[in-house]
């Protein structure tokens, strides 16, 4: 069991991105804004990939920290929005909260 846990931990270790700061075929390196967009659309891209699409979830030709920050920030915005909507729906018991003046 201990050997299994150790091998699982070692398998989960990542390695540095060899494509960091290397331009892609179009000559661009993804930065913060591309990372933010990729983070916001990661759910849709993953869903479309399940049905045979060829959409990238993460751009490997990026500038490092700023792209990663935008990517994580985009995922955070997406999850925060989903959590807020789920909370609002549960809080209102599924009823529309309409005020008439």
Instruction: Calculate the terminal CA-CA distance, rounded to whole Å.
Output: 65 Å
Chain-averaged pLDDT: 81
Instruction: Characterize the largest beta sheet: strand count, sense, and whether it forms a barrel.
Output: none
Looking at how many chains there are and whether they match, the oligomeric state comes to: single chain
- Element-level helix/strand string: HHHH
Q: Please state roughly what percent of the residues sit in beta strands, choosing from under 5%, 5-15%, 15-25%, 25-35%, 35-45% or over 45%.
A: under 5%
Helix content: 40-55%
Number of distinct helices? 4
What form results from the Cα inertia axes?
Answer: extended
Low-confidence stretches: none
How many DSSP-defined strands? 0
Structural class: mainly alpha
Radius of gyration: 19 Å
List the helices and strands and how they pair.
Blueprint: H1 2-11, H2 32-40, H3 42-50, H4 65-91
Plain-language structure description:
The model has no long low-confidence stretch (mean pLDDT 81). The chain has helices spanning 2-11, 32-40, 42-50, 65-91. The longest helix has 27 residues, at 65-91. α2 runs parallel beside α4 (65-91). 54% of the residues lie in helices and 0% in strands. 11% of the residues are buried. The protein is extended. It has a domain at 22-91. The chain is mainly α and 101 residues long.
Can I get a quick summary?
It contains four helices and no strands.
């Amino acid at each position: 069991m201990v050997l299994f846990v150790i091998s699982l931990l070692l398998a989960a270790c990542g390695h540095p991105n060899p494509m960091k700061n290397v331009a892609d075929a179009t000559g661009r390196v993804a930065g913060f804004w591309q990372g933010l967009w990729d983070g916001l659309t990661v759910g849709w891209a993953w869903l479309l990939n399940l049905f045979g699409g060829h959409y990238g979830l993460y751009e490997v030709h990026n500038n490092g920290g700023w792209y990663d920050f935008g990517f994580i920030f985009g995922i955070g915005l997406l999850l925060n929005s989903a959590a807020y909507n789920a909370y609002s729906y549960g809080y209102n018991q599924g009823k529309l909260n309409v005020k008439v003046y």
